[in-house]
Structure to design on (585 residues):
C-alpha cells in the first residue's frame, strides 16, 4: 500500500498543495490505483524483454524545415497571467 | 601541513545541434527572436500535441557520436524526465535515460607545450534531449513575477558526458577546446557560448593521500560558467576550496549529499546552490508519444566513411608531412579547415612547410585579425603567397623587403613579379655588390678599424648607407661581403 509520506512527496514534486483531507483521499485513491497495477507483478517476467513502446513502430521522423509558429497572442491566450511578450509566473527564486 | 592529492574532474557538455527546426516540432530554432514567437502546441505542452523526431537532429548526433569514437547501440528510445519548473511547460523534459543513442567513446587530448601527457578522456555517453525555456526575473516592473520565454523550448541538445578522467583544470580546458574544435570541424554546432549553444557543468573532487590511506572529498557539481576560461578558473578555485574545507572539517564523500555550486565570475568564487533533487525523483519512464529509433551497422559505417579529417589527425599530418612543430600545427588547425587548406596550398606551392607556416601565422592571420576577415575574404591567393615565399627562398627577393612586397601584393592584387617591379626591387648581382662594398669600406676607415679591432658589430653602421645607395641590397649580403673583404685586408 501507498503511505501518506509517499503521496506528500509526490505532491511536492508536482508542486501540488494538498489539504489534510485531500491527502487522505489521495492516499486512498492512489493506493488503489497502484495496487491494481501491482497485480501485474504476479506475472513471471524473468525471461521477457522490457518493452520500450506499446506500438510496434520505429524510426518515425520529420524533415528539418522550419514552419511558421503560433502568433504570440494565440500562444499566450490561455495563460492566467501574462504581459505583452511573456508568460508571468510567481517569482522563480534566485539560485 | 602539505598533503598529496589528485584532482578528479568530469565534464557534462550540452551542445545545441545546428538544425533549422526544433527537435520534435517545426518551430524555428533561430536565436534572438522576440519572446514567445517561436512556439506551437508541442512547445507549450498543450493537450493533444504530438511530438515527432527531427531526422536531421538525429543524423547530427550520430555524426558526433561516431567522431567521439562511441559505440552506437542498435536501439535507442525516449524517456520523460519529470520535474516541475515554470520554463518546462509539460512538467517533463524529453530525454534519454537507460538506452542513450551512444556510449563508451573517448576524445584524445594533448598539450603542445607538454604540460600534461597525451591521454584519452573517456566519453560515458552522449544522448539527445530537448532544451527548456528561459526564465527572466523582472526586477524593474514586477518584483514579484518571473517572465517566461518559451522560444528555446524543444531546441535539440546533445549532452556529452565525460568520464572523470581529467586530472587538472588545464586538462579540463584542453578537453573543452578539443571538443569544441571537433564539433566545429564536423559542422554539428556553432558552439557559441554567448548564445548558449554550448554549456558546461563540471564535477570535481579530490583524492587525498592521508596517513589513514586514501580519502575522497565530496563531489561538487559546478554550474554557471560562461566561458572555457571561467571553467578553468572555477575548477582551480574549487580545488583550493575543497582542500581547505577538508582540512577544517574532515568531510569525506558520502558524509553529505552531493552539492551544486554556482561560479560567480566577478567575485571569482563558487557559491552553494539549493540542493538538487535526487536522481530517482525525476521518475523517468519511456515516452509513449515517441517511437524508438533503430540504427544499423551499415548506417554507422556510412557516417564513419563520410566524416571529414578530424582535428587530431590533421595536426599529426601537418607535423609529419610539412615538418612543422606540433605547436604551429595546433595554431593552424585551430583556425578551421579553410585556413588549413590555404596553408597546405602555400606549403605545397613553395615546397617549404616551415616558411609557409611562418607566413600564414605572422602575416596572413595577423592581417585577417586586423581587418576582421575570414580566409575566404583574404585578398591574396595561396598561389600568390607561395610564389612570394618561393622568391625569398630562391634569393630573388631579400627577406628584409619581403614584408613590403606582401603588403603591396595585398593592397594592389598584383602577383610577386609585378609587385617587385612596381617597387623597383631587383636582384643585385655579385659585381654590383662587390663595387658597393669596396666603396663603403673606402669611405668608412673607422668602421674597418673597429672591425679589425674585434668589434664585428661596427659593420652595422654600413647597412643604412648601403640601403641608401641601393635599396635592393640585402643587409645580410652586405654584412657578409664587407666582413670578408676586411678579413682579406689584414
Amino acid at each position: 500500500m501507498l503511505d501518506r509520506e509517499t503521496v506528500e512527496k509526490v505532491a511536492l514534486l508536482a508542486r501540488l498543495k494538498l489539504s489534510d483531507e485531500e491527502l487522505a483521499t489521495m492516499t486512498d485513491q492512489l493506493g488503489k490505483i497502484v495496487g491494481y497495477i501491482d497485480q501485474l507483478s504476479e506475472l513471471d517476467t524473468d525471461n521477457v524483454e522490457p518493452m520500450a513502446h506499446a506500438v510496434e513502430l520505429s524510426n518515425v521522423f520529420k524533415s528539418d524545415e522550419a514552419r511558421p509558429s503560433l502568433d504570440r497572442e494565440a500562444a499566450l491566450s490561455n495563460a492566467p497571467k501574462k504581459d505583452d511578450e511573456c508568460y508571468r509566473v510567481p517569482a522563480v527564486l534566485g539560485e | 601541513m602539505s598533503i598529496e592529492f589528485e584532482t578528479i574532474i568530469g565534464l557534462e557538455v550540452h551542445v545545441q545541434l545546428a538544425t533549422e527546426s526544433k527537435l520534435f516540432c517545426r518551430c524555428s530554432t533561430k536565436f534572438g527572436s522576440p519572446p514567445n514567437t517561436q512556439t506551437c502546441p508541442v512547445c507549450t505542452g498543450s493537450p493533444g500535441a504530438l511530438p515527432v523526431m527531427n531526422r536531421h537532429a538525429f543524423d547530427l548526433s550520430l555524426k558526433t557520436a561516431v567522431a567521439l569514437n562511441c559505440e552506437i547501440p542498435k536501439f535507442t528510445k525516449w524517456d520523460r524526465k519529470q520535474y516541475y519548473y515554470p520554463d518546462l511547460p509539460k512538467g517533463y523534459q524529453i530525454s534519454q535515460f537507460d538506452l542513450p543513442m551512444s556510449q563508451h567513446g573517448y576524445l584524445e587530448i594533448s598539450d603542445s607545450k607538454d604540460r600534461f601527457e597525451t591521454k584519452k578522456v573517456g566519453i560515458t555517453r552522449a544522448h539527445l534531449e530537448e532544451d527548456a525555456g528561459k526564465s527572466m526575473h523582472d526586477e524593474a516592473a514586477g518584483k514579484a513575477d518571473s517572465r517566461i520565454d518559451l522560444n528555446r523550448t524543444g531546441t535539440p541538445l546533445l549532452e556529452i558526458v565525460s568520464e572523470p578522467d581529467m586530472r587538472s583544470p588545464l586538462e579540463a580546458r584542453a578537453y573543452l577546446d578539443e571538443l569544441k574544435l571537433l564539433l566545429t570541424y564536423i559542422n554539428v554546432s556553432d558552439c557559441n557560448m554567448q548564445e548558449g549553444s554550448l554549456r558546461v557543468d563540471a564535477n570535481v573532487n579530490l583524492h587525498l593521500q592521508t596517513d589513514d590511506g586514501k580519502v575522497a572529498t565530496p563531489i561538487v557539481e559546478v554550474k554557471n560558467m560562461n566561458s572555457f576560461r571561467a571553467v578553468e578558473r572555477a575548477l582551480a578555485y574549487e580545488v583550493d576550496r575543497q582542500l581547505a574545507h577538508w582540512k577544517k572539517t574532515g568531510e569525506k564523500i558520502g558524509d553529505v549529499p552531493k552539492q551544486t555550486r554556482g561560479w560567480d565570475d566577478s567575485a571569482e568564487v563558487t557559491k552553494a546552490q539549493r540542493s538538487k533533487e535526487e536522481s530517482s525523483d525525476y521518475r523517468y519512464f519511456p515516452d509513449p508519444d515517441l517511437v524508438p529509433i533503430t540504427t544499423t551497422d551499415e548506417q554507422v559505417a556510412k557516417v564513419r566513411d563520410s566524416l571529414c579529417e578530424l582535428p587530431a589527425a590533421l595536426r599529426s599530418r601537418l607535423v609529419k608531412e610539412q615538418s612543422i612543430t606540433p605547436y604551429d600545427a595546433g595554431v593552424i588547425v585551430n583556425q578551421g579547415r579553410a585556413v588549413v587548406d590555404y596553408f597546405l596550398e602555400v606549403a605545397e606551392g613553395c615546397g617549404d612547410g616551415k616558411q609557409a607556416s611562418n607566413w600564414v601565422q605572422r602575416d596572413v592571420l595577423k592581417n585577417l585579425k586586423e581587418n576582421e576577415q575570414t580566409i575566404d575574404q583574404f585578398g591574396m591567393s595561396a598561389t600568390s603567397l607561395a610564389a612570394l615565399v618561393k622568391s625569398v627562398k630562391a634569393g630573388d627577393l631579400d627577406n628584409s623587403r619581403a614584408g613590403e612586397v606582401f603588403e603591396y601584393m595585398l593592397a594592389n592584387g598584383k602577383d610577386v613579379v609585378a609587385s617587385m617591379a612596381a617597387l623597383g626591387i631587383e636582384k643585385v648581382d655579385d659585381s654590383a655588390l662587390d663595387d658597393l662594398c669596396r666603396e663603403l669600406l673606402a669611405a668608412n676607415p673607422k668602421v674597418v678599424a673597429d672591425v679589425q679591432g674585434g668589434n664585428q658589430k661596427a659593420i652595422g653602421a654600413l647597412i643604412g648607407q648601403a640601403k641608401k645607395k641601393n635599396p635592393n641590397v640585402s643587409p645580410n649580403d652586405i654584412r657578409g661581403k664587407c666582413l670578408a673583404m676586411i678579413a682579406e685586408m689584414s
